[in-house]
Amino acid sequence: MRKFSAVLMCLMLLGSLLAACGGKNNVDNQANNGGAAPGNSGRNNEATTDDAKHDITQRKVTLKIHYPLPDETTLRTQEDDKIARFQAQYPNVTIIKDDWQYDINEIGVKMASNEAPTFYNTWATEANFLVERGWVADITELWNNWEYKDEINPVLQEQFIVDGKVYGITQNGYITSTVVNKKLLDDKGVAAPSLDWTWDDMYNTAKAVAEPKKGISGIAPMGKGNEAGWNWTNFLFEAGGDIESNVDGKVTAVFNSDAGVKALDFYKKLKWEANAIPQDWALGWGDAVSSFQQGRTGMVIAGAFDVVQAALNEGGMKPRDVLVYPMPAAEAGGKHYGILGGNYLVINPNATKDEQEMAFRYITFDYFSEGSLKAVEDTINARKAEGKYYVPTPLEYFKEDSEYAGKIQAVYDKYDNVYKYDSNLFTLLEGKPEAQFGTQDYYATMSNVVQESFSKQDMDSKQQLDTAAQYVQENYFAKLEEK
Questions:
Q1: CATH class of 177-339+430-480
Q2: Alpha-carbon distance 291 to 321, whole Å?
Q3: How much is the pLDDT for 401?
Q4: Max CA separation in the chain (angstroms)
Q5: Domain residues of the chain, as ranges?
Q6: 236/266 Cα distance (integer angstroms)
């Protein structure tokens, strides 16, 4: 889901100057290294001029970059700083800011009218969709020539590798988790469940915490917008189900399975038996997170970073009162599946080769830089001066066992205002990628099912899911075969 990109990107795209690292062909490398062929020490003016033509830093390049929205003032300030540092190293590059945000309903028009940015942000669900329509550049050569490619988190990067070719660069990622308000549990005398918990544990905890007459819910599942379908899909995965199958290019809806019925029945139990969800259950992503930070719910389902950040720095909660759990297993010994999602920067295929290479250099400019370590430490100190906490993201763009990860952790260990996740959490988190075809359409359809389940008691789950699957199949998946 795209709602996670802003704050996460704020943390991970900080830093100082990074040596140029885009892909270059052999001629480029010769030119940039002063590169006459062996034995050709005397270079005439004609050769020098020819080398300059092949040196991308000597040619004028214009980039229309992905830029934060007007209300994202902190992100804009940071992006402006990055632009200044980038242009100090590449004075030949002109930057045009474009705050268009990826929209599945607008990308086709943007491409057709040649108005799309040189690179833009998109989500993990969109790889096959964009590749099939030719709306994203193949950057395999640039990727293969990048010195840090082997230090990138492979779980995240894999989402934008299609048929062995690279089409995007991971910015950040998440595995959907459950965040628990321990203070609310303590106030009610409810013991916090084990991290290796189950649906029954979630049900019992939510039921025990809920006080409907006081406006306190035990859990606040999202109930409107595509995020309602997104929240529910975690339970589909935990029950052993899938959204779709893809056999020989034929995509088929399969979420109306026994696992789907089990997951939908569990949602209904939270509503109709436990009376544990908000009375006004039509909560979007922001509503659910706000409910948690205001102490009005015991649990919320989302990417952990966003909830913890809001709870500590906006809600005034203490780290000991905000616990991050994996999603619960359907049964003891089962998988703690949570949706694996993320945000990616992809390059416009209509851009020239020079523009594509400079876009790659811009995107990766702050990755793995020593300066970014200082920037993280400066941010931690700034948070401390404000009486606030620094919240790391659980899933970074770099490998957790990389040298850079060790450097980041060493910085975290120096401060008492850095939020610390339970180390056992990472042994239980199990990410499952979102489906690659029609995912947002599926989420929207399932959101209607969730709303119907919360508003009408005694609905037949199998019938609801069969109707939804037929709708998704006929209106979305079947049309994939026509393209």
A1: alpha beta
A2: 15
A3: 87
A4: 87
A5: 2-174+342-378, 177-339+430-480
A6: 10
pTM for this model (two decimals): 0.79
Residue 449 has pLDDT above 50, yes or no: yes
Average pLDDT over residues 197-203: 98
pLDDT confidence of residue 371: 76
Q: What's the burial of 11, exposed, middle or buried (CB within 10 Å: 0-12/13-18/19+)?
A: buried
Q: Name the residue with tokens 């902190």.
A: 74
Quote the tokens at residue 117: 């940015």
Q: How is residue 353 written in tokens?
A: 């080769």
What are 271-326's pLDDT values in tens digits? 999 999 999 999 999 999 999 999 999 999 999 998 999 999 999 999 999 999 99
Cα 282 from Cα 278, distance rounded (Å): 8
Q: Please name every residue paired with 152 in a beta bridge, in sequence order, or none if there are none.
A: 398
Two tokens, residue 144: 């293969």
Name, in order, each residue with C-beta under 8 angstroms of 348's C-beta and a sequence gap of 6 or more: 111, 116, 117, 118, 119, 120, 136, 137, 355, 356, 359
pLDDT of residue 482: 59
Give the CATH number of domain 2-174+342-378; options: 3.40.50.790, 3.10.20.30, 3.40.50.970, 3.40.190.10.
3.40.190.10
| 229 touches 446 (CB < 8 A) | yes
More confident residue, 177 or 383: 177
Task: Return the number of other C-beta atoms located less than 10 Å from residue 478's C-beta.
Answer: 14
